[in-house]
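Ticket #4471: structure output looks truncated?

Reporter: J.K.
Steps to reproduce: submitted the chain below (113 residues) through the standard prediction queue, then opened the result file.
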Amino acid sequence: MRENCTTSKVNGKVIQRSQYTQNIQDNAKRIAQSGELYKRRQALVEHPYGTIKRQWGFDHILTKRGIQAASADLGLMVLAYNLKRLFKLKVSLEVAMKHSFLSVLKLLEGLEV
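Returned output as attached by the reporter:
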């Protein structure tokens, strides 16, 4: 093992490890284990984020007052994206609200154990 070490007296060898390195490695493992699911998620979810970032110009969060404010900013962006999609698809607001409400109920039922 010693032969792999640097012999430089000036610079040496610096190894940096982020506090998030373990999380990054764990995520990479999960992606490798469920490749098809990850590819499907990319196809469904990444497109709206790309549209919001590139076409609408929201490449960063405007609020710098913490995670809750940033979540609110992102929530408004996503709400605007979804409303724009509904209008383009000519879906009535009543149908959209009913579908959303039923989806939330389904989600809540799944949480009750």
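Triage note (M.O.): checked the attachment and the full token line is present. DSSP finds four helices and no strands in the chain.
Status: closed, working as intended.
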